[in-house]
Write a structure and sequence with these properties.
- The chain is an alpha/beta fold.
- It is built from four helices and six strands, in the order E-H-E-E-H-E-E-H-E-H.
- A six-stranded mixed sheet has the order 1-3-2-4-5-6, sandwiched between helices.
- A hairpin with an 8-residue loop joins strand 4 and strand 5.
Amino acid sequence: MASGVTVSTESKTSFDEVKKSKKYRYIIYYIKDEKIIEVEAKGERDVTYEDFLVTFEQYRNECRYCVYDFPVRVAVEGSEKKPDMTVNRLVLMSWCPDKAAVKQKMMYSSSFDALKKAFVGVYKCLQACDSEEVSEEVVNESLKKGGK
């Protein structure tokens, strides 16, 4: 079921600033007036995932979306020694904590598809409802398993 919520032009532009120009490390989005997905916060490129989680902690009782350009170590194919390298993977997260209002959780859940369609090039989509599901270890392991 679609919610009728749309993605703002600014949201799409900020996504491109993470994806293409690598201007930001992350973008946090919210649904404004139950109608449109807007940008709420941006993290500079030198921000660590730990810094992001500190900022994200303020939303422990509210739903949000986030795009994070996550650095992950991957093995290089075709090499005898199997050296690894760091690549960045775009992660789109839907955050709906248990303490959020039921109406808000329903709105965010039903609007997630609109965001997925608007943000072309996301490597992995994650849904989380507690801090364990957004931990660096869990996200890193999820990325090693592959996209979408």
